[in-house]
Amino acid sequence: MTNSQKLSSLIDSRNGFCNANSTFYSKRNPLPLPANTSLDITTFISSQPHRGTTAFIDAATGHRISFSDLWRAVNRVADCLHHDVGIRRGDVVLILSPNSISIPVVCLAVMSLGAVVTTSNPLNTAGEISRQISDSNPKLAFTTPELAPKVLAGIPIVLLERVGATRGVRVVGVLSEMMKKEPSGERVRDRVSQDDTAMLLYSSGTTGRSKGVNSSHGNLIAHVARYIAEPTTETNEIFLCTVPMFHTFGLLNFVIASVALGSTVVILRKFELEEMMAAVEKYRATVLILVPPVLVAMINGSDLIKRKFDLSSLRTVRCGGAPLSKEVTEGFLEKYPTVDIFQGYALTESNGAGASIDSVEESRRFGAVGLLSSGVEARIVDRNTGRVMGVNQTGELWLKGPSIAKGYYGNEEATKATFDSEGWLKTGDLCYIDDDGFVFIVDRLKELIKYKGYQVPPAELEALLLNHPDILDAAVIPFPDKEVGQCPMAYVARKPESDLSEKQVIDFISKQVAPYKKIRKVAFIDSIPKTASGKTLRKDLINMATSKL
């Protein structure tokens, strides 16, 4: 008997738990990973067989791009980047753009060269973007004329669309022209390894300022392989992309997986509830991928939505970004009884791996985020003692598998704090796994605030608050909100004699951060409660803020 056969015999088939090593194993099918280690994610995606015809549709204009035209465009853009711009393996390329058909073309072209894609939220301020640029050091940026001034001077820019003169930036190309240019015929490119970094997406991790997550070609190949192992969608599915494509949720679903599977994706440039519903009706969308606040908006506006729009094509809603409560799930099913709702759980650091609900039967396990993804191992660890727990015991969820990122770019301290020496990712989420292998999130150990699915790190806002001349100390907490999930609330200790107002605090922060990071509520307090070691007692402040709800 081989070691793997011995291990299999020790694993409980009901919940996937192995007593011998206190590890939970996925009950899903094994991952069909390619044997070739010199394989980039773009080549892997392009080699997947499917019968899809239309790859992407722009919801606003109706412009379509077929799979054959997509791959032609990817090859031409890659050729231009290699020969005309000089992009090579390991070079970082920034994409700063609202949702667009252009994003998949650029991402797939860049990664085919062994170069690295990094993305930034177009809502971020120039200061926030410049910090990311300083950290990732991109050789080139793809952006729109409107957003180009946010890119540091001196970085070459390829415009996603041609307009009149763009001042103060160094334009070296226009994407539409690259897509029309015949390839040079020379296909000599750098050899790419699956261990090479493919994407550098920024996440706040468990605390603090955003850090670049090193996701390799192998990580992304494992993400696609999961859909091959567990096909949950048909080729004729029509997805509506409502989530940001700069975020791992949008990129992995709508640039990586959908192209590999041959599905059609209708792209909304920005989210607006009525526009989303109009697009479902116009393009006969079958699948929506959403964050919980959008689901809540659909519930609250259901009567108007159903009177105004024909949603008969819609079969499935997949929801991620934050846990979905039983009340919200049941409320949605009551309003939209013909639509199945499936939850999922993953992190930027796990590249789509984690847990998911993949069938109607599984969706009846209210409160669960699903069964462990294909190829994923999990442990439940007591944060205080380090003891590894068993079935139905609560602790921090640790994940391991081929999708788990390599660490944080240029940040060894943060990498060591989040990834252990054996490759386990400490998620920062308090969870348990039940008798049937379903994962339940009990609480978030990490301090991120989830505003409409966006990550807001309290430490970043606190650092800005402490720069105000009238503020002695400050702490930022998540305040529950039915519409947006959570909103940032600040507790502020003013300096003696100061008459600083709530509005002044809100205005001070709003000038320095993206709209989703704005502080929405302020309470003044004599002093911020802290432990003996000086750590803010955020739980005490949360209890104080929510006690009157």
TrEMBL record:
**Family matches, as SUPFAM superfamilies:** Acetyl-CoA synthetase-like
Q: Give residue ranges for domain AMP-binding enzyme C-terminal.
A: 460-535
Q: Which GO terms describe its biological process?
A: phenylpropanoid metabolic process; ubiquinone biosynthetic process
Record has Ribosomal protein as a keyword: no
What domain of life? Eukaryota
The record's Gene Ontology cellular component field reads: peroxisome
Query: What positions does the domain AMP-dependent synthetase/ligase occupy?
Result: 50-409
| Segments crossing the lipid bilayer | 249-271, 283-301
InterPro entries in alphabetical order:
AMP-bd_C (IPR025110), AMP-bd_C_sf (IPR045851), AMP-binding_CS (IPR020845), AMP-dep_synth/lig_dom (IPR000873), ANL_N_sf (IPR042099)
Kindly list the cofactors needed.
Mg(2+)
The record's listing under CDD domains reads: 4CL (cd05904)
State the Gene Ontology terms under molecular function: ATP binding; CoA-ligase activity
Keyword list (alphabetical) reads: ATP-binding, Ligase, Magnesium, Membrane, Nucleotide-binding, Transmembrane, Transmembrane helix
Recorded hits in Gene3D superfamilies, A to Z, give: 3.30.300.30, N-terminal domain of ligase-like
Family recorded in the similarity comment: Belongs to the ATP-dependent AMP-binding enzyme family.
Instruction: State the protein's name.
Output: 4-coumarate--CoA ligase
